[in-house]
Design goal:
The chain is an all-alpha fold. The chain contains 3 helices and no strands. α1 runs antiparallel to α2, α1 crosses α3 and α2 crosses α3.
């Protein structure tokens, strides 16, 4: 259940980030923003449920939210790093 909780949290964060107007990882994400947000909400709820099943109520919720927040912090840095690698140096 722990791995399922973590994977679903990461998928939820990826869905929320790809639905953002500021992302450049996947350009069709802006056109499918509503579907991505809906899928991300479902993944976040399932991650919380898997965390609760694996750890108990509060520990499971906090584990799912911590993994979600970690991915939401790291994804903009990954996006910026990929953009810097693609653009030539001045």
């Amino acid at each position: 259940m722990t791995a399922i909780c973590l994977v679903l949290s990461l998928l939820a964060a990826l869905g929320f980030y790809l639905a953002s107007a500021h992302q450049r990882l996947w350009s069709p994400g802006r056109t499918h923003a509503r579907a991505l947000r809906a899928a991300a909400c479902v993944c976040a709820a399932l991650a919380a449920a898997a965390g609760i099943a694996g750890f108990g109520l509060w520990a499971g919720v906090f584990a799912a939210l911590t993994a979600l927040m970690l991915a939401l912090v790291l994804l903009p840095y990954v996006d910026a790093w990929r953009r810097m690698r693609r653009e030539p140096a001045p």
